[in-house]
Design brief:
The protein is α+β, with helices and mostly antiparallel strands and 89 residues long. The protein is 46% helix and 20% strand. Helix 2 packs parallel to helix 3. It is globular and about 30 Å long.
């Protein structure tokens, strides 16, 4: 498991630079406001393809995590599953 990705996510959540959720992340990608997007291992295929499409347009990096969405929710100290997280510039 890439611990640097986990620490990057934790730092983003702590500094309020992380966008949690598909809709918010895609909206920010369309506006070109993200530097990196993290996808969980069980992220739905439709969501993944949308994120990949918009990240190509805004030249944003995508990092595929090898953890499931419920575990990412725990890492971010949320009571729900998280499939997509975007980090703002």
């Amino acid at each position: 498991m890439p611990t640097d990705a986990i620490s990057e996510i934790k730092k983003g959540v702590k500094e309020k630079k992380a966008l949690i959720g598909t809709a918010r992340t895609i909206k920010a990608l369309k506006l070109g406001k993200l530097q990196k997007v993290f996808l969980t291992s069980n992220c739905p295929a439709s969501v993944k393809s949308s994120i990949e499409h918009y990240s190509r347009l805004s030249s944003c990096k995508i990092e595929q995590l090898d953890i499931p969405n419920d575990e990412l929710g725990v890492i971010c100290k949320k009571q729900f599953s998280i499939s997509v997280i975007g980090l703002k510039d």
